[in-house]
Structures are given as C-alpha cells and as structure tokens.
Amino acid sequence: MKAYKKVLSVAFTVFCLSSFFSPEAGFAQQTGVKRTDLQKHYIEAPGYETIQARIDFEPGKAVGMHSHPGEEVIYVLEGLLEYQIDGEKAVVLKAGDVLFIPAGKNHSAKNVGKVKAAELATYIVKKDKPLLVFKK
C-alpha cells in the first residue's frame, strides 16, 4: 500500500509540473536544452503576466526559430550564446551581456561555446497564450 501511495504521489507531481510547464519545454529538454521556470506572476498591465526562467544549453545545442506572445529580456549567465532574430544579423553574447527580443519576433538561440551556457529569460507575455510557438 505504501508503494502505491508513493507512485500516486509521483504521478500527481508529474501531472502538476506538466500543467505548469509548456509542452515546448519538454521538447527543448530532449534536445540538450533545459528550461527551469523560476517564477510566474500576473502584473498590473491588463491581460499580461511575467515569467522568469533559466535556460541551460549543452555545448552545440540550440532552440530553433520560435516566438513569444510578448517581449523577452535575456541576461546571459554563462558561456557563449548566438542569437538569430529574423531580419537581423546574428549576435554572439557572453556572460553579463543582455538582449531584448520584441513581441512576436521569430528568433533562435545556440550554444556556440565548448562548455555549458545559460541565460536568464524574463518574458512579459499575454496571459493564457502558449509561451513558445515554433516557426513552421
């Protein structure tokens, strides 16, 4: 009976976490990119919320072209990350560098270094919309 309760507890935890994280986060984790949501809050701007996450990239791994239903503010924590924003020249950022990505703008990110890289991403996005939409 104890083992059954433990299995139910684990299953419930997985269900709750999968409800909090988007399906796209699971996709990213399977490709050597891990997103850890740190906090999520409704803000005073009607219809918007803020989500803050840490994104870890194994060497050579990337998140393909995608967009968000709002702005993304990036702070590179470690490593070298190359960002490509549609219509702009690619930029390589190192720890301490920042980047602003406008709402709805397709972009990608790739670890171009030889060691793990990470960013702190802050999203100011529309509530009840998918956080991440991959470009088709």
TrEMBL record:
This protein's name: Cupin domain-containing protein
Keywords: Signal
Keyword Repeat belongs to the record: no
PANTHER family assigned to the protein according to its UniProt record, in alphabetical order: CUPIN DOMAIN PROTEIN (AFU_ORTHOLOGUE AFUA_3G13620)
Signal peptide: 1-25
Top-rank lineage group of the source organism: Bacteria
UniProt domain Cupin type-2: residue ranges: 55-117
Organism in which the protein naturally occurs: Arcticibacter tournemirensis
Entry keyword annotation includes Signal: yes
